[in-house]
């Protein structure tokens, strides 16, 4: 399949490199990264607005690299990274008039677009959006639509574009895909997208009900030295690479001021007895509450970033008037 | 004309803020900056506060993306380019045109290299030796080993619809990057080759290569001529070079090319060898065994635009002067009023106002006292830049080379 | 080696057309121009006081790719400078130039477009003349290669072009301005200046520079300056089309 609008690789196709350690896991790299944080401790989020001046609003979000990743950065031994940390850029263009051909809309028409850079994940991504990227776009739109005061801009459009420069892993790279497997990394990406988009929308001075923040919680099982797989536990802001298996995960888009959830996405099943959960507190409600707690954490970072954006804007406009 | 009317009404009497004036009469706004009234004693300066031949502040950062073999972020003023390089493996059996002729002749370039400097270590060999030997780089072009793609659909500027296929501009930029990679021969073919040494049944040979009788390109065989015959290329590294323009405020090519350059300098390829039992290529995951690419030189791109005082000069046929007359007018410019300005590293606002473009890619030959070598010289869309001007621009680009060399050296 | 040949108006349905063949570089291009025409559905993109110029390049054998978009951009920038898009009847209309590469070697992925560029420029200028699009000037272009010993080769074949150290395409207006320069490969400025002198002689003959006797003589001996080719082609056509008038006179 050749794309005539892009530069294509060799027609016979290429293969991703196969590493010796993935055949015989004996070398240094083959040690699973361990979560160094407390179960309710969140990763630090770097969030900055206004880095892209040509856009109406923009933001850049980065998760703090996990302990294993920063250790690997400091003294590199293996070319295989133990885990990765989310990095994404978000731009907002608008409100702008809708295209001539568009039908009348009394509200602001929201268009969301999430695209991974080809180098964002372990496997090279295609240039054309795949199903998961479209899915992320739809989830993001739902999350934001509930927060934006759309009636204020009739016949207008708002384009939100997110470029994911580095995504999270779905599992530890050396693990074989198993039955619990799902695109867990995508949930973290969505949480990041929601927080970043919220900051960018505020940076574009679009009226919102509240700053909507994304948060993730998951029920995970870890390997322990003593007795194989430990009992499942609830953790906030999980990095799927840190854990033996993720049983269930939940991402919410949450507005703290109104205590409202605009988007909820829950994957996995923890109700079944087959999973072997004896903890009665480990319910879906607990999972959602955990995600909301994570979102509250992200909200504080978000509020700070938006405050900076507002100060910059105030500084600009006062500079103009003088 | 409308523009002259606006100039006369624009003075402070009408309280039109500069930002509004810039939007309504962009041409007059920039012209007013570049040709201040002689009485004001102000220097000619661009609307963005730069001198005509001044580039924007450039910063680079490399190696911050985890899943790449090499990556870079380049900020050229408000234009930001992120480049990530992912290496994948192309087996020769997947190359339709990889024929018997290729595999039999494949040992020639390597042998030739050995003949020229048999005593040098492989590292030194890369540094300076192989430039004298004309390496056969046709593999890179023939088998598409470099795959650069530039994306503007990142919301980098209004007008680029996200998700739409690459615009003509993005396609053109991708092509320019690829064509410059080819014509500058920046990446060496030998860096991308994965060799296989057929096991030699001699006992000392087995001892020396205790890596399950595996060989790769890095292990130099110290002059044992008999084994040279059994070496063959089994695979190539293919570098997928993806450039995301995150923010576009003019001059995307310089930003993209600098990002490619920085990312290629950052790129490390793992040691790879052909595993005969598995019939596949296996890579070592040890960082200590991975090696950097040895690039040929450092071609630095500088772009310029020419801003003309008379916006419609191309329109009225009768007034276009002869090239000879033009030179005389240019002479008189030295004393009197300037009509044309060559603006280095134009921002988005200036690009919209200036049609004529110049792009120079130059390198300095380190072995010949930093002699300036032009790798690419493009000039299009106007009459202002001729021989004399190009010569001046080559000098400006040579200074820019020093700047970029310093910036890239720091990361 | 014969010089390039051209003919006007080979296509009857286009407003203007031209075909151009250069045996030295092996390029053969057929071009058509439609102007001024309405460009439907692009009202927002049209400039209010100028014509919109669109160039399409269709390769002969291979499917098109990113390289065509690049060369289209180069041609558009060069031609938009000499087309008088503000003349009556042109603003808010389109000038559409379609160039088909009929013969010659196909251009591979990421390969240089320079060998075909002069032919494309000549074809478009002839087609524009044939369509009576108002132009401020005419142009002529040539390609020169410099080999590793510093020798300049005029209009190299594609095999020669691949082997040389640098390739240069220069286009001059009929008034002697350097309108376009595309150079690639390693060279220094002195080499380029020699290339410039030679290209100017090829395009304009001796008249443009009197001092450079030697080179100029050889150019004029084996072929006419390229500028003359455009003129002759148009003159021939006028002779054919106005034969009734000339005969009557």
TrEMBL record, chain A:
Protein name as annotated: 3' exoribonuclease family, domain 1-domain-containing protein
Domain of life of the organism encoding this protein: Eukaryota
UniProt-annotated stretches for the region Disordered: 1-39
Subcellular localization, as worded in the UniProt entry: Cytoplasm; Nucleus
Family: Belongs to the RNase PH family.
UniProt source species: Aspergillus keveii
Broad class of where this protein is predominantly found: cytoplasm
PANTHER family xrefs: EXOSOME COMPLEX COMPONENT, EXOSOME COMPLEX COMPONENT MTR3
Keywords assigned by UniProt, alphabetized: Cytoplasm, Exosome, Nucleus, RNA-binding, rRNA processing
Exoribonuclease phosphorolytic domain mapped to chain residues: 41-206
Listed InterPro entries: ExoRNase_PH_dom1, PNPase/RNase_PH_dom_sf, Ribosomal_Su5_D2-typ_SF, RNase_PH
From TrEMBL, chain B:
Ranges of biased composition (kind: Low complexity): 98-107
Keyword RNA-binding: yes
Entries under InterPro entries matching the protein: ExoRNase_PH_dom1, ExoRNase_PH_dom2_sf, Exosome_comp_Rrp42_subfam, PNPase/RNase_PH_dom_sf, Ribosomal_Su5_D2-typ_SF
Family that this chain belongs to: Belongs to the RNase PH family.
Species classification: Eukaryota, Fungi, Dikarya, Ascomycota, Pezizomycotina
Keywords assigned by UniProt, alphabetized: Cytoplasm, Exosome, Nucleus, RNA-binding, rRNA processing
Record-given protein name: Ribosomal RNA-processing protein 43
Exoribonuclease phosphorolytic domain span: 54-105, 144-270
Ranges where the record places region Disordered: 36-70, 98-136
Automatic annotation (TrEMBL), chain C:
Family annotation (Gene3D superfamilies): GHMP Kinase, N-terminal domain
Keywords assigned: Exosome, Nucleus, rRNA processing
SUPFAM superfamilies xref list: Ribonuclease PH domain 2-like, Ribosomal protein S5 domain 2-like
Primary localization class, coarse: nucleus
Superkingdom: Eukaryota
Signal peptide: none
Locations listed in the record: Nucleus
PANTHER family on file: EXOSOME COMPLEX COMPONENT, EXOSOME COMPLEX COMPONENT RRP46
Name of the featured protein: Exosome complex subunit Rrp46
Organism, scientific name: Aspergillus keveii
